[in-house]
Specification:
28% of the residues lie in helices and 26% in strands. The chain has helices at residues 39-50, 64-79, 111-118, 137-150, 234-256, 273-285, 300-303, 310-319, and strands spanning 2-11, 15-18, 54-57, 88-92, 97-98, 105-106, 127-131, 156-164, 181-191, 196-204, 213-217, 228-232, 263-268, 333-340, 344-351. The longest helix is centred in the C-terminal third of the chain and has 23 residues, at 234-256. The protein contains 8 helices and 15 strands. The protein is α+β, with helices and mostly antiparallel strands and 352 residues long.
């Protein structure tokens, strides 16, 4: 028995924002002091560390749920199924629908309910709900979809990951340069053949790590302190990820029964190129192995970090043969992995 992906889709906003577009920003530190380095130097250092050259922002009149709907449409077209046959729509995000220029999120109705409405699904037994799990949200939604299908509760599940981070960033914080917008979606279905989701692993670290990512006031002291923006303790997140993610990936792979040499690709959350490279390197060191060439596709250079959308978007780009040197073949085994707010970690082994 297996749970397989039968269709995928993604939505990448057309508005490209390059590092040069941050040249006139008033960057400050957490104390409100203007940074001593020029914005050109700040942007160059960010690119050296994260790999980000540009990121994509959504159109002013669109919302997170709109992007999720577009990605879902493409996934349904790829799967060639009737939307009425979906048993679950699981929408992973973190901040809901935030209108351009607004300071309040909109979660009523849920984003999943909005997608179901826009897909014009009449079936009341198609259950639509949202999941807030940080950047690993889409992957955790995929794990939940497998659980529903394994339990006989569902046969088909649509899992969406979408985020509009451009509307929750502090423009006086250099970390704002990392974030982006986008959406990805996948459809999972019961399949009697071998393969599909072979194993998964999830962990929540909250004792000391819960507030490594948080909502905080602007670094500009002249702005309203009650208006909150996404903030992070970057160094702590980096050290946490390097310590915890490789082991979670190993636990998941060992649970699957797949040998490390059988892995075709590692689809990892596009947060920071240097961090992702270090995580994968440590993962292979746990097996006393060297990292194979082209094992880790990267989309962060042009798309930035779109949180829950990075994994399903990257997966869909490879499925549609839009990534040079990367493709999937029948029998290939891939390993998904993500880390983010919570602090949450998860991984999943999948065989085509």
């Amino acid at each position: 028995m297996g749970v397989r992906i039968i269709g995928s889709g993604s939505f990448v906003p057309k508005n490209a924002v390059t590092n040069k577009d941050f040249d006139k920003f008033d960057f400050r530190d957490e104390h409100g002091t203007v940074l001593k380095h020029s914005n050109e130097v700040i942007a160059r250092k960010l690119q050296e560390i994260t790999g980000i050259e540009e990121r994509r922002y959504i159109d002013d009149d669109k919302l997170t749920s709109d992007m999720g709907f577009y990605a879902a449409q493409k996934a349904l077209e790829a799967a060639q199924i009737d939307p009425e046959t979906l048993d679950y729509i699981i929408f992973a995000h973190n901040f809901g629908d935030v209108k351009k220029g607004a300071i309040q999120t909109d979660l009523l109705p849920t984003l999943a309910a909005r997608v179901k409405h826009n897909l014009r699904i009449k079936n009341s037994r198609c259950v639509a709900y949202d999941i807030l799990f940080g950047c690993p949200g889409w992957l955790e939604g995929s794990i939940q979809a497998k659980a529903f299908i394994d339990a006989g509760i569902a046969k088909r599940c649509l899992v969406i990951g979408a985020e509009t981070l451009s509307r929750v960033i502090d423009l006086h914080d250099r970390d704002s340069m990392i974030y982006a917008d986008g959406a990805g979606a996948t459809i999972y279905e019961f399949d009697a053949s071998e393969g599909g989701i072979l194993a998964h692993e999830t962990g929540s670290f909250t004792y000391e790590e819960a507030f490594y990512l948080f909502f905080g006031k602007s670094y500009n002291p002249d702005l309203d302190p009650d208006t909150r923006y996404i903030k992070m303790h970057g160094r702590k997140i980096y050290e946490f990820a390097l310590q915890q993610v490789p082991q979670a990936m190993k636990n998941c792979l060992d649970k699957s029964g797949v040998a490390i040499d059988q892995l075709k690709k590692i689809i990892i959350h596009q947060a920071n190129e240097k961090m992702d490279e270090a995580i994968v390197s440590r993962f292979y060191k746990l097996y006393d192995k060297e990292v194979p060439e082209n094992i880790m596709p990267m989309s962060i250079h042009m798309l930035g970090n779109s949180s829950v959308a990075t994994l399903p978007t990257l997966f869909d780009m490879i499925m549609r043969k839009e990534m040079i040197h990367h493709q999937f073949e029948k029998g290939d085994v891939i390993l998904f992995a993500s880390v983010g707010g919570g602090m949450n970690i998860n991984a999943m082994v999948y065989q085509f």
